Structure formats: structure tokens, C-alpha cells
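Input record (one chain):
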Amino acid sequence: MKTSTVWTRLGGVMAIAAGLALAGAASAQKPEEKVLRLFCWSEYVPQDVVKAFTKETGIKVSVENYASNEEMLAKLASGGGYDLIQPSEYVVEALAKAGRLEPLDHSKLGNLKNLDPAFLDMPFDPKNKYSVPWMAGTVGIAVNTARIKEPITGFEDVFQARHKGRIVVLDDGREMVSWALATLKIDANDITKATLEKARAVVSKWVPLIKVYDSDSPKTALLNGDVDLGVVWSGEGAALLKEDKKFAWVMPKEGTHLFVDSLAIPKGTKHPGNAHLFIDFILRPDISAKVSEEFPYLNPNLAARKLLTQAQLGNAASFPSEAEMKRLGVFRDIGAMASSIDEMITDLKAQ
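The corresponding structure, as predicted from the sequence alone:
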């Protein structure tokens, strides 16, 4: 939900993509081992779901977590050996351009029919050639109303001197830049040297006010009372609303975006058949609903939504209103500018 110098490695990796593809093709001709290496976001894949898949298929799943797309890309560039990954939309687009993903065999994914058409054939992956939506969501503001009495309506209300040392934000450079651009009324995908300089002027004022950077579980600092405000993933916000009524969820008035985290198969995987089985398993309504129960993000599975309670469907952080959804765009691949964002944020944090 989630940029770095590792993007510059994509071009070099393209040179070995053909060799990886041949290796994958050769392995596909042999019976696959009953194993699957899943590389996924922290706090996103319920252990009970993994156990259920193993019990049903006999395939042993090893799960490794990451906290950002950039961490995932770095591991992938160094070899990794993963069978299935969970990239966000702009990363799916970049990896596909670089020839780093295996095309999906839709004939093995009978449960694709369960997905909301609004989450299919999106601009970052036309016809879902390489990816299938896992969960979606937004980034918004979590407010401890027992401590914060004035109205909080957007990013500019959060990053005020009076809140210094009481703010948690996602440890994600592209996210922070997008918030700054939103305050300047600049599109989140309009990343140039000029717009990045404008964003730098804003973020440089924010950094001294922030107490915690956390993309894994930003809700923890809020629940513990360490901070009073958070710019966090919507699933984290939904969990806060469920946990304690003192928390409120705010969609920033300046605007925010829709993130779509998907399942995709890295080029050259040794277990493409197992990966397809896991993807189709996740698309089952009962299984997808279990994911929502533990991690309450915006579920793109229409059939699974029918199994959710009214309380789950009514959680404002999990399911934005129709009007709010119409305002949401998605991140696109910005190429080499991604490393410029990473360098800028690293520099500002060090000051």
C-alpha cells in the first residue's frame, strides 16, 4: 500500500530475463515440488489461510514479509527465488515493462469471475495479463479524538507545529511525496525535477514534526498512545475504528489515491503451477472473506463481500463511499524518478 535506487537495476535485470524464462520453462516440464515461496506485505496474509491451502493441496508454503515495494524489488533483483509476490499497481507496471513477470494462465483461474469488474483491466495491467488483485485501499488520516479536539480535514491540518512529536506516518517516500503534491494541487503521477522540488519544500517542513515512520503496523503507535495522529493505510485505520471508538478516519480533503496490491508470478519461477493454485484459492469467496476478517482492506472480490457483515461493510476506512471512490486515481510507473524520490526522502530524514 508503497521507491528506491533498486529501480535502476530493472534495466540490467532485463538482460538476464530471457535466461530466467528458459530455466522456468525447463522446470515447468517436470512435476513441481509441493512447495511455494510467497513474498508478501507484512500483516496481509492470514496464517489460517496459508494453513488451509496446505491442508487442501499438500503444498507447503513458506512466507517471507516485506514492508515496502522497494524492499521487495531489492530482494527480487538479488535473486530471491520467490514463486509469488504481492506488488502494488505501479510496481506491476514496471516489472511487466522490464519482462520480470510470468504471464498468467487465465484457464487455471476459474475464480477470476468473482472479482469486481472495476478492479479488472486497470491501466497498470491491461487484461490482467500479469496480475490479479489481492486487496485494495487508500491512505488516510487516523485521529485520536480523545486527544485531538480541533477538526482534522487534511494533510495540512496534521502537519502543524502543535502536533510535533505526536504523528506517525508510513515509511514510504512515494506516499509522502504524493501527499505533498496533493497540498499543491499537483497530480500524484506528475513527478518531474520541478514538481519534486516543490514537494521537497513541503516535506522538509513535515519531517521535523514526525515521531514514527512505520509501514508495517502504524496503528500500533496510535493504540499505545505514543502518537495522536497518523497518515496510514486504510486497513490499519479500519482496525483502529473497530478497536476503539475514540479513533476517527478522515479522507484528506486535498485528495488521496487508490492502491491495488496484486498477486503476480516472478519470471523464471520453479513452481508456476503451485502459484496459480494459490491465486485461484485466494479468489474463492470464503477464503477472500477470511482475509478481510483479519486485514480489513477494500476487498475487490464481489462474491466475498456478500459474506461480510454489515459492520465490516460499513467501516468507513475499509469501504469508501461511491463519491469518494470516484475521486481516486492510482499510482503509475514513474521510471527513474523513483530513485530521485528515495534520495530526497533519505536526505531530508538525515538533516
